[in-house]
Amino acid sequence: MTVYQALDYALTDGVATVTMNQPKARNPLSVALKEDFSRLFPILKSDGDVRVVILRGQDGVFCGGGDLKFLDGTDRTTVEDRDRIWELHDWFQILVNMEKPVIAAVDGAAYGGGFGLALGTDFILLSDRARLCSVFSRIGLVPDVGVIFSLPRVVGLQRAKEIAMTGRPVFAEEAKQLGIAMEVYPADSLYAEADKLARRLALSSTKAQGMTKRAMNQSFTMDAAAAVEVEALMQSVLFQSDYHKDAINRFVNKKPLKFNWEDMTND
């Protein structure tokens, strides 16, 4: 059994819950946490029992971003700093491209790299006390953990520049209006709502969800013809899947589908 230093991991009924567990230190992207992510994320990607992932913090903190104490006074070369960012993306890109739904449940602060971490997921649920901030401009840096790529695609170029270059916080309701957050919930119900969403998604076809995610993630760099090619290829694969064949059989024989969002809205 793998032992993690800065997170707790649980898998129940296809839902993997990853909880950053250093709230007193604001769950920094410390060496320990990054090592944990680098070990855990490949497991989440490859484990067939994992159907949906929830990424969360605890005690009113999501992730405060980079460990600034680590940066203070450290004698590092430019090459070492460059390698540090590349190593970060070794695990972060696994999260972004994982062919499974990933939910960020953000309560409290998601600052700097913590903001980027949330933006790397598919669905961001916020508590009403959540605050997001690209703080890099405050310390003379450019955004990292993928924010340069992800934020303009979510909020548009001008608003992304404003958020990144001012370093101002974005609070929960504004984040929802900008399309950063899917929903905002009271803090005491956030994690339950994230779990509910995850358990619903876990009833769907993981392969279909994963291919949909991959295709949409790549759509910003494809032209229309390439998108049709991707659509045709993925659909031809999924037509042969057991999940699809079972769903068609259920539909033809007037049996309930395993995954029907309308039937789950009141649970």
Low-confidence stretches: none
* Outline type: globular
Strand content: 15-25%
Count of individual beta strands: 12
Instruction: Give the CATH superfamily of the largest domain.
Output: 2-enoyl-CoA Hydratase, Chain A, domain 1
Total domains: 2
CATH class of the largest domain: Alpha Beta
Number of helices in the DSSP assignment:
12
Spatial arrangement of strands, main beta sheet:
1-2-4-7-9-12
Can you write the helix and strand succession as a string? Answer: EEEHEEEHHEEHEEHHEHEHHHHH
Question: How are the secondary structure elements laid out?
Answer:
Elements: E1 7-12, E2 15-20, E3 28-29, H1 31-46, E4 52-56, E5 61-63, E6 65-66, H2 68-71, H3 78-97, E7 102-106, E8 109-111, H4 113-119, E9 123-127, E10 131-133, H5 147-155, H6 157-166, E11 169-171, H7 172-178, E12 183-185, H8 190-201, H9 206-218, H10 224-238, H11 242-252, H12 261-264
Parallel strand pairs: 2-4, 3-6, 4-7, 5-8, 7-9, 8-10, 9-12
Antiparallel strand pairs: 1-2, 10-11
Helix pairs in contact: 1-3, 5-6, 9-10
